Amino acid sequence: MATLHLKAKPNARRNALLVGADGSVTVRLQAPAHDGKANACLLAFLAEVLDVAKSSVTLVTGHTAPFKKVEIAGLSDKALQAVLARHQA
C-alpha cells in the first residue's frame, strides 16, 4: 500500500497532477470544495491517473483541509514514485 501526501486546490479549469522539483504534490480539481465534491473528484482522478480501482484509493486525513493524506491499495511506493516522476514539472 502506497501513501501520498498532497495539497488539493479546488475550482480549477481542469484536473491536473503537478509534482514540484522538491517532490511536493499538488492536485488541481475542477470540483468545488463543497459537500465533499472536491474529495470525491480527487479520489476518482487519482484512481484514473494511477490506474487503480476507485475503491483502492482512500482519503485518510484532510477531509476539510487542503493538505491531505491518501492511501492507495494495490500499488507499491516504487510504482507510485514512477507515476509521480512522469508528472514532475
Order of helices and strands: EEEHEEH
Helix content: 25-40%
- CATH topology, by name, is Conserved Hypothetical Protein Mth637, Chain: A
Radius of gyration: 12 Å
Mean pLDDT reading: 95
Instruction: Please state the overall shape, judged from the principal axes of the Cα atoms.
Output: globular
Per CATH, the superfamily is: YggU-like
Strand content: 25-35%
Please give the number of β-strands: 5
Measured between the Cα atoms of the first and last residue, the distance is 25 Å
Strand order of the largest sheet: 2-3-1-5-4
| Text of the CATH class | Alpha Beta
Work out the count of structural domains.
1
Give me the secondary-structure category: alpha+beta
Main β sheet profile: 5 strands, mixed
The CATH level-2 architecture is identified as: 2-Layer Sandwich
Task: Report the uncertain regions.
Answer: none
Q: Can you describe this structure in just a few lines?
A:
The protein is of the alpha+beta class and 89 residues long.
Task: Write up this protein.
This protein is of the alpha+beta class and 89 residues long. It has one domain: Conserved Hypothetical Protein Mth637, Chain: A (2-Layer Sandwich). It is 27% helix and 30% strand. The protein contains two helices and five strands. The protein has helices spanning 37-50, 77-86; strands spanning 2-9, 16-19, 25-28, 57-61, 67-72. A five-stranded mixed β-sheet has the order 2-3-1-5-4. The longest helix has 14 residues, at 37-50. It is globular, with a radius of gyration of 12 Å. The N and C termini lie far apart (25 Å).
